[in-house]
Amino acid sequence: MTIPYSDWKHGEDYRVIELPNGKVLLFITGNHQLLGISPELGAHLQEGLHALTAEESEEWQRVAEQGIISDVNTHRLAASSFSDGANLAININLTAFCNLGCTYCFADGGDYGRIQGKMESETVEYIFDLIRKHVTDTQAVRFEFFGGEPLLNFDRIKEICDYSDAFSRETGVQFINRISTNLTVMPDGVLDLFARKKFIVSVSIDGGSETHDHNRPTKGGGGSFDKIIKNCIRVREASDDITLVARMTVVGDQVSITDNVHELLAYNIFDYFQIYPGVVSAEHNSIFSSLVTIERGPVTVGGGAQPQKTGSGCGSSGKNTVDPTFYRQLSEFFDIYPTLFSPGNRFRGVLEYERFADMIIEGKTALSYCSGGRNYYTFSPDDSIMPCHRLVGETEFQSGTSKEGLTADLSAWRLSVDEHQTCSKCWVRYICGGGCKQENFVATGSLNEPNPEMCKSQIQLVENVVRMLAQQGEKYRNQNRVPLEDLFVSCGRPLVMNLRSPAAALPGDLQHFHSSY
Predict the structure, then answer these.
(1) Which of 116, 288, 279, 275 is nearest to 202 (CA)?
(2) Using one digit for the tens of pLDDT, what is the confidence trace for 366-402?
(3) Residue range 105-123: average pLDDT?
(4) Would the pTM count as exceeding 0.70?
(5) What number is the average pLDDT over the span 14-41?
């Protein structure tokens, strides 16, 4: 029997990755298997399968017959439904107002340049109507309390949590509560609610005081770091059941990623970090010395072309540029990343890194980059339902209204990565899932045509994780990553087990092909 893997291509169906110590890894795109191979075999595979010796070709065939080399990811993706892989998630855009003045904010300070006001009680019932109709088989729903600054509409948060308690008793549906906040305000009762409902509190804090106060000043121009870190400490002291996440947006290079993480880590209050490249418009690059810059195209409004707003989510295509410093800083951070774990600190990892590690170690397939337009939707004060929180107010992408529910054609949001013209030829496609659709649109004018610079970032991130896994011991590789399912990594990236054959099943005569990485 001929196994249909003889025409696989390097960089598309598999990837050879070299380690600093001279060892070589083989990453299989079709099942996320990671194998240790000889440098000689690695060199032949980089050239292509046609370059294999007769003995290597025979060995490749035998390994494929055992299922160690396979394309189970392709079949799992093809057989999946858009509702698979993640809980139903509702992003609740509670208010258009924010009390900080972050110049790089994609939401134009909270109102997206397009909406006003705050969410009122009448929308709450509509939210639960949608849940009744669209809750997934998991029978779990994650709320994403968002804004603006969501704690400026704390009454609605309390109302939604009370409603969810009653809804759970009636239906058995369980709720996970997560909030994205700058934590500059602490309404009466907020600590009790966070503790009682075991909130995931994602705090926008870009690093230490120098970096954060430069990036995220108050609207009056003052610093916000001291107030935020004091409130983070209050949240931490309120309950160990609260998961506290430091959400770092990287836009400048005055202080390195490593130094910023170390400064926050020293407080020993954060469970996880998120580190994400922020995008700053070209006209503000001189302000930030930005590592990631976008030159946005014009937006057609009323028949005329107008400049794109700094924080606005869409418009016609633009050009992204990423300073090489960003990639260098990422590599330097990965070199020290495993040293950040210590028994005396509650730090459990950087969410994106741990998610990728989990997909490789456990064998999981990404069904999409995020759950937007699949089982993730945003309700806003303007009565809209959007497939992505970054697109609030962009009527061309509206999925429905609070009263009517989902009414739009969402097929573009549910396109398989194997149907993408570009992504279908990329070796990280079943980990990445096709790139952020909003970022794709800004950069290329298409939801499903990836932003080349973000592709480069995702590929380097996967390579860094692979190298780290290969060089770390069993203790790191075996740590518990189950909580990641609830933490909204990559906007709720939907994942399924890919049901691959275990590498441990390799027979003894093939051990030189597979090692114990």
Answers:
(1) 275
(2) 999 999 999 999 999 999 999 999 898 888 999 999 9
(3) 72
(4) yes
(5) 93
The pLDDT score that the predictor gives to residue 319 is: 58
Instruction: Look up tokens 């709320």; give the residue.
Output: 143
Q: Which residue has the tokens 């995020």?
A: 370
The confidence band for 272, taking pLDDT boundaries of 50, 70 and 90, is very high
Pick the residue with more confidence: 109 or 88?
88
**b/e map 471-487, b = 16+ CB within 10 Å:** bbeeeeeeeebeebbbb
Between CA 461 and CA 262 the distance in angstroms is 20
Determine whether 420 is exposed, middle or buried from the number of CB atoms within 10 Å of its CB (0-12, 13-18, 19+).
Answer: buried
Number of Cβ atoms within 10 Å of the Cβ of 53: 11
Q: What is the spatial distance between Cα 249 and Cα 259, in angstroms, rounded to a whole number? A: 14
Write 206-209 long-range contacts (CB < 8 A, 24+): 206/248, 206/249, 206/250, 206/251, 206/260, 207/248, 207/255, 207/257, 207/259, 207/260, 207/261, 207/263, 207/264, 208/255, 208/259, 208/260, 208/263, 208/264, 209/263
Tell me, letter by letter, the H, E, C secondary structure of 330-397. Answer: HHHHHHHHHHHCCCCCCCCCEHHHHHHHHHHHHCEEECCCCCECCCEEEECCCCEEECCHHHCCCHHH
> Which of the four pLDDT bands, split at 50, 70 and 90, describes residue 248?
very high
Report the chain's mean pLDDT, rounded to a whole number: 86
Geometric angle at alpha carbon 493, from 208 and 89, rounded to 5°:
95
The answer to whether 328 and 300 are in contact (CB under 8 A) is no
Q: Half-sphere exposure (CA, 13 Å, Cβ side) for 224?
A: 26
Q: How far apart are CA 10 and CA 96, in angstroms?
A: 48
Reported as a single tens digit per residue, the pLDDT across 72-92 is 999 999 999 999 999 999 999
Give 23-52 as a DSSP string. Answer: -EEEEETTTTEEEEE-HHHHHHHHH-GGGS
Going by C-alpha positions, the residue among 234, 246, 117 that lies closest to residue 187 is 234
The first and second tokens of residue 400, run together, are 């429905």
- Six token digits for residue 119: 């969410």
Q: What is the pLDDT of residue 263?
A: 97
Question: Hunting for tokens 């690059």 — which residue is that?
Answer: 285
Q: What 3-state class would DSSP assign to 273?
A: strand
Distance CA 10, CA 58 (A): 18
